[in-house]
Every structure is written in structure tokens, then in C-alpha cells.
Amino acid sequence: MTINHTLFIPLFILAGLTFVYSCYQRLQLVAVGSGEERFDNPAARLAGTFAYAFGQKRVLARPYGVNHFFLFWAFMFLLVANVAFLLEGLFPGVSLSALPAPLYHALELIFDLVSLVALASVAVAFVRRLFFPPAYLENDYTKARSGEALLILAMIAVLMLAFFILNGARIALGAEGSWQPISAIFAGLLAGNAPATLGSVASGAWWVHAVMLLVFLNLLPRSKHMHILTAIPNCYFRSLEKPNVQPRETFEKGARYGVNQVEQFTWKDLFDSLTCTECGRCQDLCPAHNTGKPLNPRRIVHDIKQNLLDNGEALKASHHGATPLIGNGGEGSITEEALWSCTTCGACLSVCPVLIEHMPKIVKMRRYLVEEKAKFPEELLNLFENMEQRSNPWGIAPSERSKWSTQLGDRSFKAGETEYLFFVGCAGAFDSRNKHVTVALATLLDKAGVTWGILGKDEKCCGDSVRRLGNEFVFDTMARENVAMFKERGVTKIVTQCPHCFSTLKNDYRQYGLEVEVLHHSQLIAQLVRDGKLKATKATQLGKVVFHDSCYLGRHNDTFDAPRQVITAATGKAPGEFGRNRESAFCCGAGGGRMWMEEQTGTRINLERVKEALQQKPDTLCVSCPYCMTMLEDGLKDEGADGVRVRDIAELMAESLRADG
Amino acid sequence: MLVISCIKQVPDTTQVKIDPVTNTLVREGIPFIINPYDTHALEESLNLKDRFGLRAVALSMGPPNTEATLRKAAALGVDEAILLSDRAFGGADTLSTSKVISAAIERLNDQEEVGIVFCGKQTIDGDTAQVGPGIATRLGYTQLTLVDRIESLDLVKKRIRVRRKLEGRHEIVEAPLPVMITVVRELNRPRYPTVPMRLMALETEIKVWDNSVLKLDANTVGLKGSPTWVSKIFSPERDKGEIIGDGINDPVGTANLLIDKMLDKDLLAV
């Protein structure tokens, strides 16, 4: 068989140029985004790239991901095979067979086996997509895109089959076949044909492979399979910060706030949108989507991409997108209700195989609505005003903040005398149910001999809710005031009982120069138990204890074990678990400022979580967050499950100490 | 045409305590807010600005730190913010306050016709509800109190029709401009400032008119011009309650005891 170079070379140049042009067009669109530093710390970035891209860490988190793992690595090897294939087509006489024999045979064997792996993976994917689609792929959004997915799968299958037929025909024509066992099977099937026929089969298969390869290449930048090109760099450029820490804004005349035009996103936000493979894992875990809200993180990313493509020409010409992002919810447009539905629980962030940052984009669009338009659900007006006037969500007088501690005498924080600043938080100071948790924690700290003090009426809200709701202007003021006060009072260690205070003080305030030790009470109590400063006998009256992960403690701060250790210490056995737990835990519904908003669309998130809890037949639901406490208690009441109590880990520990007598 | 909102800076009363010894308000460290009813007056002036293109002016009488309240009004969108401040105005009761504000409105009217003056129905510190009507009387404006809806405004015929919220009923009233309207909270939902407007408000000029501008007889304003003054502030004493019966072990008997007690005190109509 001979290759018609004169026909292939121009074809290749044409296909190559269109491919490069398509990629260039897409990258030009990415470049309309604003600047963002994602080039620092190359060592950490490379390490992450190996883990997430080459190691397929997140992909493998689901059983079916193993199929993609095989396909990914098959593609890695076949990349070499196909470069060789193209070179063979471009330069007469060039062939891998010129390599030293052992190396050549090794490559032949690898390519042959890997092609079989790819073919098998494609077959599995076909069967799954057609006959066993998982629930999260069963919706109109996915169905509308299934054609493209099946087309790509079919093309890969054709490429592999063409490869085997080509090599099979070559072997049948007398080429050495002992290092290509699969192709040898195809050779067996072709055996007995005349050499001329075999020659035609070989050329035919070569051309099918060549044309399919060039078409495939050109389809990539125009489809969701763009991820084949962008996923690896997207992993490299991932956020090295906690992604729930939103970037600061500068408040000066003439500045714009938040995002409503696609070009107001950063280049990385736009690159994310081109990287989405539409796998649907984010939507599968999203509490808003699961309870019938109009938010679907996958749609958010898709709509950003669609808006970018729709406005592409206008953007390149004038740097101003024609159609805004926030609108009626058609393709390329996102509704306000979808944006307000997010609980910022971070499930989408933690599950995305290519490390797309969905939730921060939602907060950026909320910022536009709040800061540029003062447009938000009306319940939030009270919240914002209470925060600005009295620095707590309920608008209660700050002088009430230390009321819970009146029985304990003066417990003011004094630098040098008290080790920890006990940052009580608004819920811990004002909410009657959560005040019990505050007292329980104070008792535990006293028992363990830890010295602590509070700021009393001078304590201000940490600003978590206003930041997640997009009211960065108010958050900025609160953060500055708090950080200045911590510095002025000489605070070096802080303990909080609220994961939202914890995460905000620990992560967000770093942007304001606060570098002190911040502990969530679960961490401190677990530490005191380890050090033998707190000892409990079993508190048997608590029955079966099931632990609910707080998003801001668990997913956002990787603290999964500390609260479980406290429960184990308090009850003598490990807590029961929800079906969805740890990284996959389902939000209580109160994060991201949702605590202060009505939930009118769909079913209620807290009820969904409570129903899930009741499947475990618990006697006690254990929480580590004031919001979770409120949401689960309310949910249990609505479900009529009066026999089930909700306890914070601090209360559990305190009760077990009392059981000690 | 001008639409004026009169706003007052008041101590955040949820945080105000009365000193039991001196019987005066403990104001130290207490933050100030815009009188809540006045936020609705301000909002309605901005609504009319948006709908009819009127020029919105916010007026406030108070000490120099009242400037902060006027800046908030500027951040919400008023075209002009004027502070009426002079040592001579200090210690004013409702009579002399309405005199100063009326003088300021007359002065504004000299430059551009005043159509509507909005006031909150009352303040949460003084609770008199007298300043708005005082202004209307001095200026000879029609006064429309307790308004919860603007039904219509005709700038050609210079007539306004409003709905008043009265006990158990509403009243639709029409009047010729200029009018002084006091508003209740149901009238509207105050807006929230955008960040660009907040930043702009930081640079807005807050005009200060003192008595050299208004030229009022110093004996008729401030403390000197006030026929009333607060002689004492105190918290009303309340009788301590009592626990009667045993509700846990004898709920029916306890309920009967309670009913008898209420009948004794004539609290139940039989």
C-alpha cells in the first residue's frame, strides 16, 4: 500500500489551519476577560495538574470514572501514535519502523493494546449513555446534547477500527504481526483476500483514519470536547486559594462592581466555561437543583460560554458585550432567581473533575445586582440595614451581645491574660437556641482550664452572609473594622462556634492582613480530648447519634474528622452517617445568605436533608453550625419527628461530662 | 418644581436607655439613624423625582453631625441636601423647629416653586407628630396626614390625590398644591443605595444654612423660642405579675382562677 502524499498534504494543511484558527478564535474570546493572577507557584500548580488531570483524581471519585481514566490514558498514548501517523502521511519514507527494533516493537504492542482499551471504553460509554443513563443525565438539557456525545464516541470507535483494519491488512500483506496481537486477529479475518484487495482495504482504512482524525481535530474546539484541549491547563490554572473566598473589590469613583457583561469576568472564568464537559456532577449534588430551584451550576457555566460565543464578534471589536448575562434565562442568559438560589455550599466546586469554579461566578453576578442595581429579594433589605446599623442580622441592640454570659461574671478578652478570643458570633450571642451551645462551649473551655474572653458589645458580625450575598461594600467595612479591632486588642488565637465565622475569619480576613490562629470549636475540643484535658464517660441517653456535616466546616475547610472525634469521645462510638456525607454532604439550606431569605420555589432544602436523616432512624442529630441547628430543628418540626433532638457537638460533650457526675 | 423631604436624625431607640438616677437619655455611644418614618418620606420624594422629574431636596435640622444622615439621603438620590444648623436653633421644641424648617422651605420656594413637602408621621424619639402639621400651618399649605398611597398627581392642574390610612378605614382626599404630606410606613419600600451612589454621596456638598442665612429672630427659635420643654423622662413602673395556681397538675382549675382574676379586674366582657 502506498500513501497518496500529494492528496494528503494539502488536506492536512487545510485541516491544520482551520483547527489552529478555531482554537485561536476561542482563546481570543478568553482574552476579553479581565486579568487574574494564576501563574504563581508553578510547583503547586504542576503537582495539582498531575493529580487532577493525569491522575484523574476527581474523575475517579465516581465508579464510572474509571472508564474515562482508561480513555484518557489511551488518548495519551495514541497521541504519540497519531503524530507518527500524520508524519507518515506528510513525509514519504518516515515511519516508526526506523526506530531500533525493541523500541518499535514495544510501541507497536502498546498502541495495539491501548487502541483496544479505547474501543472498549467507547463501547462501555455507548451502552451506558443509551441504556443505563444515570439520573443526572436524564433531563432535557442533557438529551439535547446527547447527539454530539454519541457522534464523538462513534468517531473514536471508527478511528480505532480503522487502525485495526489498516494494520490487519498490512499484516495480511506480509508485514510482521507478532507485536500487534489485536491487529493480527483482524489480519486473520482478512486472510485469503487477494493482495490487490488487501492493498485497497489498507489504503481505504488509512484514509478513513486520516480524514476522521482531521475532522475530529476540527470538531474539538467547536464542541464540549474542547475539554480535551483545555482540561489540563484548567487544572494547572486552578485556584490555589480557598475558592469560596471571593476576591476583594476596590471602591473608587468610576469603578464597576460585579459582573453582568461576560467580559467583566476574568479570563479564568471564561476559560472555565470553555472547559466544561457538561458531565453533570455539579448539578447532581447541588441542593438548589435537587429541590426544584431554577439554579443548575452546569447551566450557569454553559450560559456564560453561550453568552461569550454569542457576543464574540462584538467583544473583539469593542470590548463590550451586547447582551447582558443576567436576564430571562434563555440560552446564554441567567435569571436573578437562579443566582439567589445558591447556598454557596461548594458541592459543585468539590466535585468538578476539571476544577471549574462555579459558585464564585454566582457571587460575582450577585455583586452586580446588589452593588450596581440595589436589586435583591426584599427580605434582604432588612438584613442589609440591620448589618449596617447594628452589625447583626436581626438588628438586635449590640448591648445584648454578652447577655448570655451574665451568670459567668466578667469574661472580657484581655491580651496576655486570656489565651483565646471566644468569637461568639451573632447566632451564638442572640439566638435563644444557639445560646445553649455558647454556654456549653464556655463550660467546656473552663473545665479544660483554657482561658478565654469575649469582646461583648464590641464584637461585630463577621460579615459572612453579606459577602456571599454580593454586598461586598458592606462586607469590606465590616472586615476592616473587625481586623483593626483584633489587632488593637492584641488577639492571637480565636475560637468560634460557627463555621461561617470560622471560615470568614480564617480565610477571608487573610485578604485584610489577619494572620492569627483561628479554630472552630470542633477542632479545639478534639484537641483538648486528645490532650486528656476533657474526659467523658458515655452519655448513653443520647441514643443513636447521626452527624450532619456543615459545608463551611467540611467542604470549605476540609474539617471532617474533628467533629466526629468529639462525638466519638462524648458517646464512646463513632457517629452514624447520612447517605451523603463529608465531601458529598447535602447542605442544610442556610448558607450563602439563604438563612435570611424565603424559600418559595420547589421543595425545602432542610426538609430534604431531614428526610434523609430520618432514614437512619436517629435519636440525636448532631451539628456543628448554628445555621444547621436552626434548619434541622425546623425541618424536624415540619416532618413531625418530635422525638429526634438536634445537638451541637459542644452540647454533646458537655452533656457527657455531666453524665460523668 | 421641588419635592422636599424633611428628615430627622434620631438615636437608635432600640439602643437607648434611660439613666435611672438623672432620668435623662443615655446617648453616649448610641448610633444615630434616620427616623424610620422619614425614610418613607424620603423614598416618596425620590419616587416622584423618578416619575415626574421633580427636583428632590432633603432638609434636616440638627447638630453638625446630622450631615451623616443627609449623606445617606444623597446616596439614595436627592438632588440637594440642606442642613439647618445653628447653636441658636438648639433645644427647640416642635413649635420652633417647624418655624426654622418653614423658613428654609420659603427660602427654597423663592428660587423654585415647592410642590410637595413630605414628613414622616412622627419621630421615634419625640413622638409628637406635630412638626409636619406645624410646617403646613405656617406656610399655609394643605396638610394631608397619615398618607399610605399617592393616588395621582397632576402637575398641570397642580392637584394631588392621596389615600389616608385611618383607624379601620381609608380616606381618599384631593387637594391643590402645594401640600404638606405626612406618611406612614405602608406608603412604600425604601430603596437601598448602590455603591456608585454611595461613593458619589461622599463628595456631595451638604449645604449648611445657619441663622445668618435664615435671619430669624433669635428669641423665637431654639430653646428661647420654645414654650414647651421636657422636664423629666422616666420609664413607667409596671406591677410585677404573679404566678397563680399550678398549671401543670391542675390546668382546668388554673384556667378558672385566671378567668376569675380577669373578671375581677374587669378585663373580660361578659
Q: How much helix is in the residues of chain A?
A: 40-55%
CATH class of the largest domain in chain B: Alpha Beta
Our count of domains of chain B comes out at: 2
Basic shape of chain B: globular
How much strand content do the residues of chain B show?
A: 25-35%
Uncertain residue segments of chain A: none
CATH architecture of the largest domain in chain B: 3-Layer(aba) Sandwich
Give the radius of gyration of chain B.
23 Å
Oligomer: heterodimer
Main beta-sheet annotation of chain B? 9 strands, mixed
Give helix and strand order of chain B, one letter per element, not per position.
EEEEEHEHEHEHEEEEHEHH
CATH fold description of the largest domain in chain B: Rossmann fold
Care to describe what's here?
The complex is a heterodimer of chains A (661) and B (270). Helices cover 54% and strands 4% of the residues of chain A. Chain A has 661 residues and is mostly helical. Chain A has a four-stranded parallel sheet with strand order 2-1-3-4, with helices on both faces. A four-stranded parallel sheet of chain A has the order 6-5-7-8, sandwiched between helices. The N and C termini of chain B lie far apart (58 Å). In chain B, the strands form three sheets. Chain B has a nine-stranded mixed sheet with strand order 11-10-9-12-8-1-6-7-13, sandwiched between helices. Chain B is built from seven helices and 13 strands. With 270 residues, chain B is an alpha/beta fold. Chain B has helices at residues 36-52, 67-76, 94-111, 131-139, 195-203, 211-214, 251-264, and strands at 2-6, 9-11, 17-18, 25-26, 32-34, 55-61, 80-84, 114-120, 142-154, 159-166, 169-176, 179-183, 206-209. Chain A binds chain B through residues 251-253, 257, 371-374, 376, 378, 381, 384-385, 389-390, 395-399, 473, and chain B through 12, 14-15, 17, 31, 33, 189-196, 198-200, 203.
Defining key terms:
heterodimer, A: 661 residues, mainly alpha, Fumarate Reductase Cytochrome B subunit, Fumarate Reductase Iron-sulfur Protein, Chain B, domain 2, 3 domains, 4-stranded parallel beta sheet, 27 helices, 8 strands, 54% helix, elongated, B: 270 residues, alpha/beta, Rossmann fold, 2 domains, 9-stranded mixed beta sheet, two-stranded antiparallel ribbon, 7 helices, 30% helix, globular
